[in-house]
Amino acid sequence: MADYDLELVKLRKVYPGGTVAVEGFDLRVERGEFISFVGPSGCGKTTTLRMIAGLESISGGDLLIRGQNFTQVPTERRPTSTIFQNYAIFPHMTVRQNIEFGLHVRKVASADVKKRVDSIIDKLQLGDIANAKEGSLSGGQKQRLALARGLVTEPEILLLDEPLGALDANLRKSIQEELKILQRELNITFVFVTHAQSEALSMGDRVVVMNSGKVEQISAPFDLYTRPKSPFVARFIGRNKIIEGQLSEAANGRAVVRTRFGTLSGVPSFDTSTASTDARVLLVAPSEYVDILPAGAPQDGGQTDTVSGQVSAIDAVGQFVYVTVRLDEDLSIRIETHREKIGQRGIEIGGQVDLRWQSERATVVLEAA
Amino acid sequence: MQDVDHLARQSAASIARALAAGQADPVRLTEHCLEKIGQQTSPVFLNVTADRALREAEAAFKRLKAGNPASPLDGVPMAWKDLVDFKGETTTAASDIYRNAAPASDDAPVLANATNAGMIALGKVNLSEFAYSGLGLNPHFGTPLNPHDPVTPRAPGGSSSASAVAVASGLAPCAIGTDTGGSIRIPAAFNGVVGCKSSEGRIPTKGVFALSKTLDTVGPLARSVEDCVLLDMVLRGAVTTPVRRIPAETLRIFVPETVVLDDLEPAVAENFENSLSRLERAGARLTRGPLPEFTEAARLAEEAGSITAAEAYVEHRDLVDGPQAGRIDRRVVARIERGKAMSAADLIRLNRVRAAGMAAIGDRLDGAFMVMPTTPHVAPAIAPLEADDALFHRINLKTLRNTMLGNFFNLPGVALPNGTDAGSMPTSFLLCAIGNDDERLLGAALEVERVLMAAN
Ligand SMILES: Nc1ncnc2c1ncn2[C@@H]1O[C@H](COP(=O)(O)OP(=O)(O)OP(=O)(O)O)[C@@H](O)[C@H]1O
Ligand SMILES: [Mg+2]
């Protein structure tokens, strides 16, 4: 029964003003999983997290933790801890007092308080500053303090809302790694909200992509990156090259698409048995798999697709070169490649080129019906 | 057992009734508040006195269980502006300078009174540094965010910024603030809660960090006028209150057309007029007219400065003239320094105009209550104010414009939510009386609140 650490069943939130912030959110999280939530501003990430934490009431659906229904349980009785970007450490309390706070609230016996606080201070290397107040802490120390405060109550689920948003890029990188290590070590479930897709993809065992209050896709990072299931995900995640078209046939894990650049094909992300032919679809090819070649270059094996166009710009940024290829009036595609490659292949502004990829690398997604 | 989060969002009086009836438990309620405080998303609480609160809650539990409450607010948690001394805690006035100052040796009398009445002290909350600005920005500990705009960070109002935010965002059912130029009424207005500025000297200010010894007053921010009535009683250490509701039909209301109606945001003007017509329909008698004392006070503030600036300079001269001035919010230093430039003649003129004005306003009102919009605008966005000191000072003065007239003439006032603008930001209606008429004021406010809240 209690196979899942966290289960959201058709979770829904309507704010008093009438804003539907979250709708039909289904999710099942295994013990010790690291789940990232990513999506544009206002899509409902924080609202979902706050419903899990018990900081916002749930308007509909159910919240289960280890099989037990927590929908109506107040925040102090939930086995969760929350860490926010504005972690709002109490500035007039010392590091130790800040960490102790949650244990006092949860009425842990005082002998235990000291033991648990000492152990977390040790684990997060806060020993030297245990008696300091917020004003004298560095960004990284504040972050570790916030984590210590969240972890000291020994939650089953740690909820993190853009916890690294206030940090500079280097610190962010190193704390990302620390977090990941800590999570594996403690083997507790993390739900991690971020704006930054690279962070979501690098941290999460699975990633939930949200848009306008709804879940668009829940997948492992590589699948999300290479196999989007909706136009939104195709555009939001990664650097996909996208060509519009109409479905001409779909069977046996392959979809053929008529586009104004010819017939192309890819792996369908939808149930082919129910899709009607002529449905509007997108052919999506991740940038990494698209090669740029002089026009008419011979194929070297495998089932590939090719579209042709004219080079309209070449921008160099350090080692990388961005080649913009104009396919027609309405569609230009930008390819990232290396300086040597375009030299060797004689690619220059005004020249005709082919863009080519392995058909099986492309995904076909249905446009909204 | 009632749902604890639902309970925590009720008025202090309703909570107290549920506690006394054994329908809820003060310990669980306190734990719930503390847990939510632990998950605050902006710097509202600077210091949480969790041990004290839980101890007090256990004691309240025993009293209530024995059917022996200490007061009508026994067991209700409250937040305190960090200007008020807590025994054993540092009073910081939200200044970096006092971060590590010595802890206070005693509870301020006002806190001792509330504690004797069984109220639970959750901890100390953020404010504008030294309580000196109406917008509530704090560069040292961060600005507590107005909960009414989930998208654009907006000013909480000040100086009792976090007192209002704590109440509005459900961290505490009620909170204590101080008001020297609008510091209770403005944040109450910006956050859609009730705020009550008392008359000078009514509620003890001993053990409360001073800005202006003359004008400083202490008062509650809460979710209803009833709460303010009970808190007015409890904070003074009284055990009964003579406050009686004044029926609308016998209310006389004066609307000054001088200064306080100038340059209002459209929604503020519209909600104000709407409130007036509701009161009129309920039977109150309205008169409108000029009040030259307000013009005179506004002019003098420009020319001569303010009592607050003069007194704040006296309180803080060692700091603002000393080597540590750089550690104080530059905008606060700028305001205190105006006091340094004032002459004895300026202060004497201010005091004479103040005394003459109090008498003249008393004559003019003759038992009527005065009303005005609490602030001419709703809570402004923070980012532009942080980026531009000139804009900050201009908006700050405008924010304080109406309320500071009440301080200058010692007019107690109750700020009541009276609607929102199109973007759901609260507007507020300020009901004032003459000095020391607090009990009639509260009695009238009970009725005005009822009229404003009634469904059309
Ligand atoms: N307290 C509130 N009252 C009313 N509406 C709210 C409230 N909080 C959030 N919303 C609205 O609900 C929607 C979802 O907001 P939420 O904060 O959950 O988004 P988010 O994905 O966390 O965004 P961001 O990436 O900007 O943090 C938005 O339209 C927001 O304006
Ligand atoms: Mg968010």
Structure in words:
The complex is a heterodimer of chains A (369) and B (456). Chain A is α+β, with helices and mostly antiparallel strands and 369 residues long. Chain A has helices spanning 45-53, 95-105, 110-123, 139-151, 169-186, 197-203, 221-226, 231-236, 339-344, and strands spanning 4-14, 20-30, 34-38, 60-65, 68-69, 80-84, 157-161, 189-194, 206-211, 214-219, 240-251, 254-259, 262-268, 280-286, 291-294, 304-317, 320-326, 332-338, 352-358, 363-366. Chain A has a 6-stranded mixed beta sheet with strand order 6-7-8-3-9-10, sandwiched between helices. Chain A has a 5-stranded mixed beta barrel with strand order 11-12-13-20-14. A 5-stranded antiparallel beta sheet of chain A has the order 15-19-16-17-18. In chain A, helix 2 (95-105) crosses helix 3 (110-123) and helix 2 (95-105) packs parallel to helix 4 (139-151). Chain A is elongated, with a radius of gyration of 25 Å. The mean pLDDT of chain A is 92. With 456 residues, chain B is α/β, with parallel strands linked by helices. Chain B is built from 16 helices and 11 strands. In chain B, strands 1-3-2-4-6-5-10-11-9-7-8 form an 11-stranded mixed beta sheet, with helices on both faces. The model of chain B has no long low-confidence stretch (mean pLDDT 96). The interface between A and B is medium-sized, with 27 and 35 residues. The site of adenosine-5'-triphosphate has 13 residues of chain A, from helix 1.
Any descriptors?
heterodimer, A: 369 residues, alpha+beta, 20 strands, elongated, B: alpha/beta, eleven-stranded mixed sheet, 43% helix, 13% strand, globular, binds adenosine-5'-triphosphate, binds magnesium ion
